[in-house]
Amino acid sequence: MNRRSFLTTTAATAVVAAAGLPARAADPLKVGFIYVGPVGDMGWSYQHDQGRQAIEKEYGDKVVTSFIESVPEGPDAERALTQLALEGNTLIFATSFGYMDAVMNVAAKFPNVKFEHATGYKRSDNVATYDAKFFEGRAIQGTIAGRMTKTNKIGYIGSFPIPEVVQGINASFLHAKKVNPDVEIKVVWAYTWFDPAKEADAAAALIAEGCDFVLQHTDSTAPQAKAQEAGNVYTFGQASDMSAFAPKPRVGSTIDHWDPYYIARVGKMLDGTWASEATWGGIGTGMVGIGEISSEVPEEVKAEALALKDKIASGEYHPFTGPLNKQDGSVWLAEGATPDDGELAGMSFYVEGITAELPK
Amino acid sequence: MTLGGIDIIVLIATLMTASTPVLLAATGELIAEKAGVLNLGVEGMMIMGAVGGFAAATATGSPVLGFLFGAVAGAVLAMVFAILTQVFLSNQTATGLALTLFGLGLSALIGKGYEGVRPPPTAKLDFGPLGDIPVLGPIFFSHDWVVYASLVLVALTWAFLKFTRAGLVLRAVGESHDAAHALGYRVIAVRIAALAFGGACAGFGGAYLSLVRVPQWTEGMTAGAGWIALAIVVFASWRPERVLIGAYLFGGITALQLQLQAAGYAIPVHLLSMAPYVITIVVLVLLSALHRHGAQAAPADLGRSFHASS
Q1: Comparing C-alpha atoms, which of A122, A82, A114, A115 is closest to residue A98?
Q2: Which CATH topology does B2-290 take?
Q3: Digits of tens for pLDDT over chain B (310 positions)?
Q4: Beta-bridge mates of residue A196
Q5: Potential cystine with A168: which of A107, A138, B123, B254 (Cβ 3.0-4.6 Å)?
Q6: How far apart are the C-alpha atoms of A228 and B217, rounded to whole Å?
Q7: Quick one: closest CA in A to B210, which residue?
Q8: Residue B80 and residue B86: Cα distance in Å, rounded?
Q9: Taking CA A307 as the corner, what is the angle to CA A306 and CA A310, rounded to the nearest 5 degrees?
Q10: ipTM of the complex model
Q11: Is A359's CB within 8 Å of B214's CB?
């Protein structure tokens, strides 16, 4: 069989399979997931898998879910997505930023399959996007870190220099600076979402630089373990609560609650009202949760952090509120102004006061 | 003591820990190659040691037992290689590559249940007042026992090859298995023993990765350390003391690139990340250029199968 005829046959089979589904209405809805790390990472992918299990619990035998874990971003993602589509999944969640182009390509080939891409910005008739305002959690972490740091140095392990991560660095820094003008932030880019050895080394380098807070935007608990070993270094749970490291080094956490979103979207598939849309939830909608602030944090700092959380949740306060300048000193937001979601989603600059250079 | 924003003492202390897995694996491979066997399965044996050591340590609660079991796991995999290449005379290069692929896959399967689990901690040794000596204290007296064990191992390997009769026999087997056989030495037995030692060292190094350096188990966590160990053996022109230099140099550059980032140097991250590998290649090229007749320092019978009838 030559390549072209293979592709045609494959596509034809897929169309037949997808078209055949509504006729057999009694069949359960098949929902597929791809994860960037193992479900046992205790962070990002673990949390998505909790959402998948919540779907099964909610809808019982009306749905069948499956997942493929540790799918690298890039061509492999396309292969994994195609496989899920060919297996008859009609709703597929792709849970990492780097799957974006793979999702668009595969979605074009399978017009009857609905795709949902986490943290991306490209959409089409059968591709929806969803994301959480992780930077709202970072604002709270920055406040705690700014109040508690003794060395005035906060470390940040970045994964990739993409808007989602840049928002987090800016929000952490701004809120630490607000309560502690002497604070500085040091960023190490790991260029991976999940590589415990590298994350551990990055944490060790930041601790060696004198950082007594290490914030991570990567998915494993390795930086937590390094901080614990170092002694007087604090961390925050990332994506998942990581409560195994509480009360020290983990003094708080940002938790991704995907469950309600996943249940709602599957519900819409079941009653036929699914449509492509962009969802960006935050603390207010419950998509971003703030884990328990541990006993290591002084009472007044804890109260301040919780007050900030309430103000963000009610919409009274936006973590990026002017006056704010960009790193080069040019004006970004005027007094009292806040950015719209579209502008935030494309954030590709540091705010004023961060000395490091943002890699291109 | 800082130099250009980099704390040299911290750098040295970090590189000693970061280099230990590669140092252990390279020392083991050195002995195997000195006996004339090229085992390209170092990566596979390391990762089996990493998962085996992790499993044993979490099951028993004792990191020491974990290290022991990691070494055993590495040695068991090396025995598979030994049976195939020494008894059935299979091609060493192909078998070694297969061993790496096999080890990576099997470890991923065994490790499924250990993801996200925390191993029992390995404490740093307490040298009392020695640890408070400026400069020397943090560099030499602030590590866990495995770091010192790896240094002792290098010294013992050096002494074994240089001074002992058994070391001489091992080298003879590697240089000319026919001559060694004619003298009545049991070539196959020596090679199997050397392979077992090599596997145990690689497994020990792998266990260090999952029990101390990260400390966590993840699929594919050796991330090429086994290949670096193989390169370091060539880099060291098959001498234990140079293996130590090579491993520390490599670990040093790896640690330095992250510290440079943390210190805020605006050097492109990708350049820094590839620096250790580029330097390894440059040194290998330089070495082979210096030895004009190819790798003179290599054991003459390296990679050649032995059969008494031939």
Answers
A1: A122
A2: ABC transporter involved in vitamin B12 uptake, BtuC (1.10.3470)
A3: 677 777 788 888 888 988 999 999 999 999 999 999 999 999 999 999 999 999 999 999 999 999 999 999 999 999 999 999 999 999 999 999 999 999 999 999 999 888 778 888 888 888 888 888 888 888 888 889 999 999 999 999 999 999 999 999 999 999 999 999 999 999 999 999 999 999 999 999 999 999 998 888 888 888 888 998 998 998 888 999 999 999 998 888 878 878 888 887 777 777 776 777 787 788 778 877 776 655 567 899 999 999 887 5
A4: none
A5: A138
A6: 17
A7: A197
A8: 10
A9: 85
A10: 0.75
A11: no
Contact yes or no for A155/B262 (Cβ under 8 A):
yes
Q: What is the 3-state secondary structure (H, E, C) of chain A?
A: CCHHHHHHHHHHHHHHHHHHCCCCCCCCEEEEEECCCCHHHCCHHHHHHHHHHHHHHHHHHHEEEEEECCCCCCHHHHHHHHHHHHCCCCEEEECCHHHHHHHHHHHHHCCCCEEEEECCCCCECCEEEEEECHHHHHHHHHHHHHHHCCCCEEEEEECCCCHHHHHHHHHHHHHHHHHCCCCEEEEEECCCCCCHHHHHHHHHHHHHCCCCEEEECCCCCHHHHHHHHHCCCEEEEEECCCHHHCCCCEEEEEEECCHHHHHHHHHHHHCCCCCCCEEEECCCCCCEEECCCCCCCCHHHHHHHHHHHHHHHHCCCCCCCCCEEECCCCEEECCCCCCCHHHHHCCCCCECCCCCCCCC
Residue B23 token pair: 């140092």
Tokens of A143: 């406040």
Question: How many Å apart are CA A351 and CA A185, to the nearest integer?
Answer: 12
For B7, the token pair is: 């704390």
Q: Which residue segments constitute the domains of chain A, with CATH numbers given?
A: 3-132 (3.40.50.2300), 135-254+288-314 (3.40.50.2300)
Neighbours of A79 (CB within 10 A): 14
Residue found under tokens 């994506």: A239
Q: Which residues of B touch chain A, with CB atoms under 8 Å apart? A: 7, 10-11, 14, 18, 112, 115-116, 118, 121, 209, 213-216, 218-219, 221, 223, 254-255, 258-259, 261-264, 266, 268-270, 273
- Residue positions counted in chain A: 360
- DSSP element (H, E) containing B245: helix B240-262
CB pairs below 8 Å between A and B: how many?
89
